[in-house]
């Protein structure tokens, strides 16, 4: 077990970390972060706190032992009102998935941040390195908080033409409007409107709301397909991608881990023990293999 090295001689104070969302009893985030805390022998614990609205967790944030939180749907677009401040990136994206505590007492601040985009960005850059060239065309499916992070990650990865498809056109157009001063997004109301095959596809909608038939015509010769929904691990989108030779796929669990690594570092200042976290998730999945569970989305 690694020992946490503090810059202070004082004992490390106990802290509580949470994931805020609705319908998240399935979340594997506690498995990931508690494995990291255990690795460094930190007196921290991470648990699930469900609430139908973000105001329902305000008391937890005000608690002196609050160390930080992950934020998932449907709260990513509303949690900013409980923050003292936001990082520039979180403000630009318009969605927060991470709360970080800075300072103590009267100087205590709650900072809203976003690690969804940084995790996705790293995955996209790793893929570009693997194939030896940059992707040019991106497609994001869905227009919620996770999609905003995916769009920004594509922009930062140098993808030039970015498409956004969503059932409610007005929602997608609002996202396009919010980003228009930074980069352009082409909004389409259905996948049939795509005029070119994307090199990078990111699904951001619950897997149970999709079918394989929806995605039958969107894949070209090769590319990167990411699905942020992680229940089931093999989603309809990824299933279709697997049938196209030349496509590299990334599951929602892999995306969840990628963004969790950045959260862990923000909260602790320590390098995330990636192997321990991956091992904990694998063990968790083995233990739950015989039972069914609801869908999961970052």
TrEMBL record:
An annotated GO BP:
shikimate metabolic process
Domain SDH C-terminal: from-to ranges: 252-281
- In this chain the Shikimate dehydrogenase substrate binding N-terminal domain maps to 19-99
Q: Which InterPro entries match?
A: Aminoacid_DH-like_N_sf (IPR046346), NAD(P)-bd_dom_sf (IPR036291), SDH_C (IPR041121), Shikimate_DH-bd_N (IPR013708), Shikimate_DH_AroM-type (IPR010110), Shikimate_DH_fam (IPR022893), Shikm_DH/Glu-tRNA_Rdtase (IPR006151)
GO CC annotation: cytoplasm
Q: Which residues form the Quinate/shikimate 5-dehydrogenase/glutamyl-tRNA reductase domain?
A: 139-209
* A GO term for molecular function: shikimate 3-dehydrogenase (NADP+) activity
Q: Which PANTHER family does this entry report, sorted A to Z? A: AROM POLYPEPTIDE, PUTATIVE-RELATED (PTHR21089:SF26), SHIKIMATE DEHYDROGENASE (PTHR21089)
Question: What is the protein's name according to its record?
Answer: Pentafunctional AROM polypeptide
Species assigned in the record = Penicillium subrubescens
């Amino acid at each position: 077990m690694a020992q946490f090295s503090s810059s202070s001689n004082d004992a490390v104070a106990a802290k509580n970390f949470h994931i805020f969302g609705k319908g998240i009893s399935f979340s594997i985030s506690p498995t990931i972060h508690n494995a990291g805390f255990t690795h460094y022998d930190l007196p921290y614990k991470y648990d699930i706190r469900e609430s139908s609205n973000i105001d329902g967790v305000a008391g937890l944030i005000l608690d002196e032992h609050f160390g930080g939180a992950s934020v998932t749907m449907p709260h990513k677009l509303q949690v900013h009102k409980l923050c003292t401040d936001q990082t520039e990136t979180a403000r630009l994206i318009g969605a927060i998935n991470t709360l970080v505590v800075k300072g103590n007492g009267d100087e205590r601040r709650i900072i809203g941040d976003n690690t969804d985009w940084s995790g996705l960005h790293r995955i996209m850059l790793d893929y570009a390195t693997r194939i030896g060239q940059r992707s040019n065309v991106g497609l994001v499916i869905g227009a919620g908080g996770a999609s905003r992070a995916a769009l920004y990650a594509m922009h930062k990865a140098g993808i030039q033409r970015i498409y956004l498809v969503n059932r409610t056109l007005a929602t997608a157009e609002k996202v396009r409007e919010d980003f228009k001063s930074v980069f352009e997004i082409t909004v389409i109301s259905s996948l049939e409107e795509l005029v070119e095959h994307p090199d990078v596809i990111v699904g951001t909608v619950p897997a149970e709301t999709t079918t394989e038939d929806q995605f039958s015509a969107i894949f070209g010769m090769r590319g990167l397909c990411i699905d942020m929904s992680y229940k089931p691990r093999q989603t309809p989108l990824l299933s279709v991608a697997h049938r196209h030779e030349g496509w590299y796929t990334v599951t929602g669990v892999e995306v969840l881990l990628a963004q969790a690594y950045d959260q862990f570092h923000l909260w602790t200042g320590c390098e995330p023990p990636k192997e321990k976290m991956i091992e904990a998730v694998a063990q968790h999945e083995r233990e739950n293999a015989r039972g069914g569970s609801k869908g999961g989305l970052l």
